[in-house]
Design a protein that fits this description.
The structure is a single chain. By secondary structure, the chain is mainly α. The chain has a domain of 228 residues. It has 22 helices and 2 strands. Strands 1-2 form a two-stranded antiparallel sheet.
């Protein structure tokens, strides 16, 4: 069967069905965790959710012939729709167990998990059954390297289709191959990802956390999703735990291709211009936050809080050890700014990414030089490498779309809530949109570290859920679904 003979609907059904089988297995694991904690009813309900997901997935797998490959157009459509479908079925454990009763709330919570955003409608996670706590963390962990899940679970059977989906999800910034075949690259990413998670679990267990707490926080740190077992995130834990989380959040914000290459040559970290940008942004944020908290908290606490908050914000992890809303206004402005930046391309973090920040900065400086020297030729370079003009233009387009979506969405959120009696203040609406689009989850005002998104009306939650998916897929794979060219035969 040729690729041209694979109708889009059949390709969608087979690939999404295959991924749903994988998700059903993950749900079953969460059910086992529930049963191990003596939660018979909850475990049974999660098993039921897994059963429904498995049946639908198998229908897609078994009733439709396996495609021999997918086109670029099909790759964009699959990626653009996969996160919506996964979130619909991923909401079933919340609904079946009754932990969340509203479908919109359950969908919002699941989107937040798979996109590693960490936004929640649950006021106190400590009251949740162990199986649901595990499912929240596991959905974030799977979403951290979401396209790699597709690669390992499904795409080895599709030949070149793996790279089509990777290009669709990453917009060309994180498609570095570690091996000639995509599935080999996917497997190596997963090995590094799993190893870092295991290492975080072991080191956290040595400290003050129980094994279950350590597992939840290890998955939350490496996936930069920020899942926790307490309402105050990690505020109640000591310095040892926070330092460990700082290390693994930082690692989660680094390109996983770089991690793999560093196994043989640790010097590759410093050789990477994007890593140096990432580190520079982190140091600058740490100095500013530490300086702002120095008088109030004292030297040692200010340094720890400055480093922890800078890493959590820059990597879009969302762990919190204090309430940003209680900080002075200048620091709150900094918090919103850090929400946009993100870690390295090819990492699990959200945001604009350090690569794009570097390109935008160098391109702006080159434009300033052209004003002085109109006939000069000024190439944009990161380190010693010249950034091709099409990449520069793509990054500038990305930034333009990013800010347009941010501004329009802020208006829409304020408009929705004003017409439904909520009347959000500007700080809450602005930070909620920025947090969703950057996959951070924690904002300021009513959606700050001490609040949740439960009070928002359903349309506002759906808007923010959509922004989480758009941000996770780095805009273009979703935006391209609304272009005429994609749907032309």
């Amino acid at each position: 069967m040729s690729t041209e003979r694979n109708p889009l609907i059949l390709v969608l059904a087979w690939i999404l069905g295959s991924v749903l089988v994988f998700v059903a297995a993950a749900m079953a694991l969460a059910a086992v965790v529930s049963l191990a904690h003596g939660e018979g009813r909850v475990g049974a309900m999660i098993f039921a959710a897994a059963g429904v997901t498995l049946v639908i997935g198998l229908l897609g797998r078994l009733l439709i012939d396996r495609p021999t490959g997918i086109t670029v157009r099909q790759g964009f459509v699959v990626v653009g729709l996969a996160w919506f479908v996964l979130s619909l079925f991923g909401a079933l454990p919340y609904l079946f167990t009754g932990v969340i009763t509203g479908p919109v709330d359950a969908f919002f919570e699941t989107v937040s998990g798979f996109t590693t955003s960490g936004a929640t409608v649950i006021s106190d996670p400590s009251t949740l059954p162990a199986g649901i706590l595990f499912w929240r963390a596991l959905s974030q962990w799977m979403g951290g390297l979401g396209v790699i899940v597709l690669g390992v679970a499904v795409l080895p059977t599709l030949g070149t289709g793996g790279m089509q989906l990777t290009r669709a999800e990453s917009s060309g910034l994180s498609t570095e191959r570690l091996t000639p075949k995509f599935q080999g690259t996917a497997l190596r990413y997963w090995i590094v990802y799993a190893f870092l998670t295991l290492a975080a679990f072991v080191v956290l267990t040595v400290g003050e956390m129980s094994p279950f707490q350590a597992l939840i926080h290890a998955m939350g740190a490496v996936s930069t999703g920020g899942s926790s077992t307490a309402a105050d995130s990690v505020a109640s834990f000591g310095a040892y735990t926070k330092i460990v989380l700082i290390v693994f959040m930082f690692m989660g914000g680094v390109s996983f291709a770089l991690h793999y290459r560093a196994i043989r040559d640790p010097a590759v970290y410093w050789k990477s211009s994007e890593f140096r940008i990432y580190l520079t942004l982190l140091i600058a944020a740490t100095v500013l936050i530490t300086g702002g908290l120095w008088v109030e908290l004292g030297p040692s606490e200010a340094v720890l809080e400055g480093v922890f908050s800078s890493v959590a914000l820059l990597t879009t992890t969302g762990f919190t050890s204090s309430d940003f809303g209680a900080w002075r206004p200048a620091l709150q402005v900094l918090v919103v700014g850090l929400m946009f930046l993100g870690g390295m391309s090819g990492s699990t973090s959200g945001g604009i990414k350090a690569f794009r920040v570097g390109v935008l900065t160098k391109a702006a400086y080159a434009d300033l030089r052209r004003l002085v020297h109109p006939r000069g030729v000024f190439a944009v370079r990161l380190g010693r490498k010249r950034v091709p003009d099409p990449v520069v233009e793509s990054v500038q387009s990305f930034f333009l779309f990013y800010m347009m979506i941010f501004m329009v969405s802020t208006f829409l959120l304020t408009f929705i809530d004003a017409n439904m009696g909520e009347d959000l203040d500007l700080i809450t609406s602005t930070s909620a949109v920025a947090s969703a689009l950057s996959n951070l989850g924690t904002g300021l005002g009513d959606v700050g570290p001490s609040g949740t998104y439960a009070f928002l009306p359903a349309p506002a939650k759906l808007l923010l859920a959509g922004l989480m998916i758009v941000g996770r897929l780095e805009l273009f794979p979703v935006l391209v679904l609304f272009t005429r060219d994609l749907w032309k035969r």
